[in-house]
Structures are given as structure tokens and as C-alpha cells.
Design goal:
about 280 residues; mainly alpha; 2 domains; two-stranded antiparallel sheet
Length: about 280
């Protein structure tokens, strides 16, 4: 397919108006640009915009076409983005728009740094996150769910770093991704424990050993509830869920960014410890 300059200009203008980083060729917008410029487009550089934002572009037969850009919660949490460059870069053709990549941070690395506590030896990297994600994937396969724990966790970390790219709802996106790990069971601690145990009988259920594991599964439910309130903008209930997690000493107004990062950190640490203690080593 030959690239019509007028169509190219329309798409470039669309990109300039709405600067989010995402790899070439996914979503309707990605497919559109790949169709216009060819399949060897390396990357696009856009910016976070509100969900369900539509723009008009002119197709090759001069018809107006609506491009639906879902770059809100679902796009952010369900895709792993790897920043490469700015603009559209195509092999074998001149660079249509080139910007230095020096100032483009790796949002995954930023996300990991935001929840690290080096002074207490708490740090995260992709292998540690994938360790948790792979555990959930085994559970999802066991219960015949199509969910992907690796995608959810990578999306959560990406969302933490996406604040640097003016994603005003980075907390909601991160929370939405993390709650999905338990949403198959609607956060029910008994059902979660049964699924874990079905995947690996070494993992105790909520009723095993005279119920001493009940608190572990109930905390998973508390995390699910908290992330759900954040995801759904239920500000009136967020402080209540924090108190359920940490006690009544949590004061009104403490549901801030620092507290959110603490909850994410604590959740990941507790899940990693739980898996290492109980899950059978393959």
C-alpha cells in the first residue's frame, strides 16, 4: 500500500495532538498507522489521553473514518509498553519525525523505583514481578481462566511509571490491574484458597491447620477491596479499606500517593513471601 502524503499528514497531526508510548501495530490506531506507513513501522509516540476519545482521519478513498482510541484503564493495564523513540520511524524511508530518546524514561524502571525501599532492602525488578505473575498464571490455567497474571503485574508497574507521562489516573490504572489478579473470585478468600490449593496441594486452604491461614487469605481480600475502591474512584470508602488493612490509626486524608505506593509495595511483598513459603518448588 502506498502512503498518501495527505493521509500521512493527518495521522502525524493526530499523533502530535495526543502525544502515550505504545508499540507499533496494536489497537485500531496502531493498525491504521501500520496500514498507512507499512508493516515495518518501529514505534509511535503518543501521550496519555482520556478514555474513549475519537478522532477523524481521511482514508485513502477520501472517506471520513473514526479512530477510537481506548488509551484509558484497559489499554494501560492490558499492554506492556517499551519506550523506544518518538515519532514514526520506518526502516528504508526517511524519518518522518525524529526526537532524541535521551529524555524518554523507561516507565517500568521508574515504576520499580517508586515502590522500592532500599534502606530496608526492599526492591523489585522484572524477575521478581514475573515470579508472582507466573504463579497466578498457573492458577488461572487450573481454573480455566484466560487471565494473564504477567500482563496484569507488568501493567501495574508500568502504570506507576506512567505518571511521568502525564497519566493523571496512574493510581486507578495500577489498582485496576492488581485487583484483576483476584477478580475471577470477586476477592472471596475461601474461593481464592481453593483455587490455589487445586493448583498446588502444598498450598493450604483457608480452613487448613485449624484455620491459622485465614488471616493470609483475608488480607488478599482486603487488598482486592482497596484496589477496587481506587479503581472505581470510590473516595468515600478508600480510607475505610485502608483502616481494614492497617488499623484505625489511619487518619482521614492519608489516602495519598505515598500511601498508595505503600499498599502496592506491601501487597507484592506479602504475595512473594506467601508463594515462596507454600508453593511447591518445581
Amino acid at each position: 500500500m502506498s502512503a498518501d502524503p495527505e493521509i500521512q499528514n493527518s495521522v502525524i497531526k493526530l499523533i502530535e495532538l495526543h502525544p502515550v508510548i505504545f508499540g507499533g501495530g496494536f489497537t485500531l490506531l496502531g493498525a491504521l498507522i501500520s496500514g498507512i506507513f507499512g508493516s515495518n513501522v518501529k514505534s509511535f509516540y503518543l501521550k496519555f489521553i482520556k478514555k474513549d476519545n475519537s478522532k477523524q482521519v481521511i482514508t485513502s478513498d477520501n472517506r471520513s473514518s473514526t479512530v477510537q482510541q481506548n488509551t484509558g484503564r484497559d489499554a494501560v493495564i492490558n499492554h506492556f509498553y517499551s519506550p523506544v523513540s518518538v515519532g514514526i520511524i520506518k526502516e528504508g524511508l526517511p524519518v518522518i519525525k525524529e526526537v532524541s530518546t535521551i529524555d524518554i524514561p523507561d516507565m517500568m524502571s521508574i515504576g520499580f523505583l517508586r515502590i522500592a525501599l532500599p534502606e530496608k532492602g526492599v526492591k523489585f525488578d522484572k524477575p521478581s514481578i514475573d515470579f508472582i505473575g507466573e504463579f497466578f498464571n498457573k492458577v488461572f490455567v487450573t481454573v480455566k481462566s484466560s487471565r494473564n497474571g504477567l500482563t496484569m503485574l507488568n501493567g501495574a508497574i508500568f502504570s506507576l511509571g506512567s505518571e511521568k507521562f502525564e497519566n493523571k489516573e496512574w493510581r486507578e490504572h495500577c489498582a485496576a490491574s492488581l485487583r484483576e489478579l483476584f477478580h475471577h473470585w470477586k476477592g472471596n478468600p475461601g474461593l481464592i484458597s481453593e483455587a490455589f490449593n487445586k493448583m498446588d496441594p502444598n498450598i493450604p486452604t483457608i480452613n487448613s491447620d485449624r484455620g491459622i491461614h485465614e488471616i493470609e487469605y483475608k488480607r488478599m481480600k482486603l487488598y482486592y477491596d482497596y484496589f477496587s475502591e481506587i479503581c472505581h474512584h470510590q473516595s468515600a470508602f478508600i480510607i475505610l479499606k485502608l483502616r481494614n488493612l492497617y488499623g484505625e490509626e489511619i487518619k482521614t486524608g492519608e489516602d495519598n500517593e505515598k500511601m498508595f505506593l505503600k499498599v502496592v509495595r506491601d501487597f507484592l511483598v506479602e504475595m512473594e513471601i506467601f508463594i515462596k513459603i507454600y508453593a511447591k518448588k518445581k
